[in-house]
Amino acid sequence: MTEDRFETIAIHAGQDPDPTTGAAVVPIYATSTYVQEAPGVHKGYEYSRTDNPTRTALQTQIAALEGVDPAADGGAVATSSGLAATALIGYLLKPGDRIVLPDDAYGGTFRLIARVLADHGIAWTAADLSSPEKVVEAVTSDTKLVWIETPTNPLLKIVDIEAVVAVAKSVGALVAVDNTFATPYLQQPLSLGADLVVHSATKYLGGHSDTVAGAIVTNDAELLERLRFLQNATGPVPGPFDSYLLLRGIKTLGVRMDRHCANAGAIAEFLEADPRVDHVWYPGLPSDPGHEIAQRQMSGFGGMVSFTPAGGVEAANSIVARTRLFFLAESLGGVESLIEIPAVMTHASVEGTDLEVPASLIRLSVGIEHVDDLISDLDRALG
Questions:
Q1: What is the distance between the alpha carbons of residues 373 and 336, in angstroms, rounded to a whole number?
Q2: Where residue 265 falls among pLDDT bands split at 50, 70, 90?
Q3: What are the pLDDT digits (tens) for 36-72?
Q4: pTM tops 0.90
Q5: What is the mean pLDDT of residues 284-296?
Q6: End-to-end alpha-carbon separation of the chain, Å?
């Protein structure tokens, strides 16, 4: 590995000038197949489901950002979506295995585990992974995978990754960390002992709400080989244009995350001080129960803020209808600010379960617009 810093790695890892033309930007290799010199003799590529040069550059870039040298100890697998990445990890399991997941998890992750993998004999347990005692209770001898979100989605709980890893390793379980909210700029779970890092690359990595993709990173060469086999066997690959968009987006990840964090912190402070707001969830607030751990394992607190208005569900519905700069939409992590009500949008699949979220909860994906304009927009919408 080089001694280059994050912002430099984001621009240069996997992105050497094209050897044929000198192009400074990795080309979009829009080809499905590759001419072979003789049967089985080729230049490393044979079919674009198996691999594609644009995707190879992206995988090198993402692995480097998570602190992995693909030439030595692992690498990345880019996928067609974040849930495709989650599904590939699910394929590592067999009937009778158990997954421990957060009691505050992304609705799509819960749906995949509880309503797809469970139909194939994979058991699951939901637990508050921010509580060391609950982790110990949940992780048993049949646990083969502990799935961490930190910060969680949408209540932004902070999970002590090293502490959970210690419990998981005591029973031989793998630990996967969904690093979508934090990004490798703010948090590097592999350095804290995790086996796998997962991204919905649609979000902050892409950063512009114009592509759907995912990624898995590991520093375990055997795990990487198995995941690449599973991807080739099942086919959830990103196209070359999606790979190009991610390569482009990731180049500015550092500067974007600085603004996301600064804006979100200011908005959280504004909301916490406002009597029209009942409660605010943001790990950057000193009052947040996860603040101390977040300070220790993250270099910033992220761009997501959740809150409940004092007026309950009726007020929440009015607020999301009145914002001008915060678009009412699902997803997150783009340069534009978004607002949503998770209970009826991104987390509708957890209704009626232990993972159900407050009906009046509002989740903000704070963009990189001028913070004063964003605060004015929320102030007006709060009524």
A1: 12
A2: very high
A3: 999 999 999 999 999 999 999 999 999 999 999 867 7
A4: yes
A5: 98
A6: 53
Q: For residue 255, what are its two tokens?
A: 């500067």
CA distance 46 to 35: 7
DSSP conformational letter for 383: -
The answer to whether the peptide bond before residue 17 is cis (omega within 30 degrees of 0) is: no
In the numeric block, the tokens 């959970």 are attached to 164
Element (H, E) at 79: strand 75-79
Contacts of 92 (CB under 8 A, 6+ apart): 145, 174, 223, 226, 227, 230
How many residues are there in the chain?
Answer: 383
- Residue tagged 């050897």 (tokens): 19
- Helix 312-322 × helix 371-382 angle, to 10°: 130
What does the pLDDT average to over 135-152?
98
Residue type, 226: R
> Is there a cis peptide before residue 154, judged by omega within 30 degrees of 0?
yes
Ordered domains of the chain (ranges, CATH): 6-250 (3.40.640.10), 254-382 (3.90.1150.10)
Which pLDDT score is estimated for 354? 87
Catalytic residue list: 49, 106, 178, 203
